[in-house]
Amino acid sequence: MSELRIFSDDDSGKPRISTSDRGRIADLLAARGVRFEQWDAGAAIRAGDPQDKVIAAYREDIDRLMADEGYQTVDVVSMAPDHPDKKAFRQKFLAEHTHSDDEVRFFVDGHGLFSLHLDNEVYEVLCEKGDLISVPANTRHWFDMGPNPRFVAIRLFNNPEGWVANFTGADIAERFNRLDN
């Protein structure tokens, strides 16, 4: 179940707001410039399907987003609990960072936890199958796939080089929740 929890950035204890209502999640995130949508596949998709089949199943939504936002490239990333480099990949995304372009992820399967550091708040967004999140360029954030990751995600980029992070050096991500899967 998708979930949004909002904390003060100096207190990871009790969230100020917690909701699993996707409409409310979308509204609260939109108020901060973050896109949150749900997509349905145009065809049956299973974990392990080739990239071209996954993209074809969501082609209409991908094309709409590419036209609306000017994204240039699209690909599919997949992570499973038996991936030999899962620990290194998890660690890479856990530190607070920004990107010079939007970070767009659509969860075809599985889940992941995006934490957005917006002004003096942290928005924890648990994204599940069917969720799209678009983190605006230069937004401080981190991502946790958990110790036993399981997800398939479509990624869209403005930058043809793909994912390029600018790490902030802040330790805030260490003080907030991790995904336990």
Task: Describe this structure as you would to a colleague.
The longest helix has 11 residues, at 59-69. Strand 6 (103-118) and strand 7 form a beta hairpin. This protein is globular. The mean pLDDT is 93. The chain is built from four helices and eleven strands. The chain has helices at residues 22-30, 51-57, 59-69, 86-94, and strands spanning 3-8, 17-19, 35-38, 73-79, 97-98, 103-118, 121-128, 131-135, 140-144, 151-157, 166-167. The protein has a single domain (3-161), classed as Sandwich (Jelly Rolls). The two termini are 13 Å apart. The strands form two sheets. Strands 1, 2, 3, 4, 6, 7, 8, 9 and 10 form a nine-stranded antiparallel β-sheet that branches. Strands 5-11 form a two-stranded antiparallel sheet. By secondary structure, the protein is α+β, with helices and mostly antiparallel strands.
Descriptive terms for the model:
Jelly Rolls; 4 helices; nine-stranded antiparallel beta sheet; 181 residues; 11 strands
Count the beta strands: 11
Average pLDDT, to the nearest integer? 93
Q: What does the main sheet amount to?
A: 9 strands, antiparallel
Please report the distance between the alpha carbons of the first and last residues.
Answer: 13 Å
Estimated helix fraction? 10-25%
Unreliable sequence segments: none
How many alpha or pi helices? 4
The total number of structural domains is 1
